[in-house]
Write a structure and sequence with these properties.
This protein is about 30% helix and about 30% strand. It has about 200 residues and is α/β, with parallel strands linked by helices.
């Protein structure tokens, strides 16, 4: 099954064209402009200028950059709808897992991290938000060597995670548009509203 995959959870855009377990093409971009301006062309380029033959879309759903996730999901849904092919999402942190004991970490708000711990790609710690300063102590407490995965999550891994759900699936408009990002924490604006602040000022 030929899939287009993308992940926009970090400042680095990752996209890939995958067929079953083979990576046909893969690229990473440090967007000079907004990801929304770059993403459609980046996906078209990874497919050699045409989406013909693409049978499914795999997208990273976070946690990660709020804006990046919104842009990535919107693009993935639009493409799936236009091509009438199935869409599935996978954890951006899980896409960073690998052999051994691995802590996947992505930047959250200032001074915070999104993290999860995996052993042989199986979850040990669930996805959570912690202070960046607390991570070394949490890892030391494990009492064994831990690899810390660096971003970005690879789109090819997103494709691998989504393939079992996409294989044999058909386009489902309701499921397509119901797919939502996993922000894992409220946005800065939501925090401000909850605290009675508007525009960062006390109300």
């Amino acid at each position: 099954m030929r899939l287009v995959a993308l992940d926009t959870s970090s400042p680095i855009l990752s996209c890939a064209l995958v067929e079953d377990d083979r990576i046909l093409a893969e690229a990473q971009h440090h967007p000079p402009a907004k990801a929304g301006d770059l993403l459609p062309q980046a996906l078209l380029d990874i497919c050699g200028g045409s989406f013909e033959g693409v049978q499914g879309i795999a997208v990273g759903i976070g946690p990660g950059s709020f804006t990046g996730l919104r842009v990535g999901l919107a693009c993935a849904k639009s493409l799936a709808y236009a091509l009438k092919i199935p869409l599935a999402g996978a954890s951006s942190l899980r896409a960073m897992a690998g052999p051994g004991l691995v802590c996947a970490a992505l930047e959250a708000r200032k001074g915070e991290l999104f993290i999860a711990l995996y052993r042989e790609r199986a979850e040990v710690w669930p996805e959570q938000v912690i202070r960046a300063a607390d991570l070394p102590g949490k890892l030391r407490a494990l009492g064994e060597p831990v690899a810390v995965a660096e971003p970005p999550p690879r789109a090819a891994e997103i494709a691998r995670l989504c393939l079992p759900r996409l294989a044999g699936a058909s386009f489902d408009a309701e499921a397509c548009f119901a797919l939502a990002p996993n922000y894992l924490q409220p946005s800065t604006a939501e925090v401000a509203l909850a605290e009675g602040r508007v525009g960062g000022l006390p109300r």
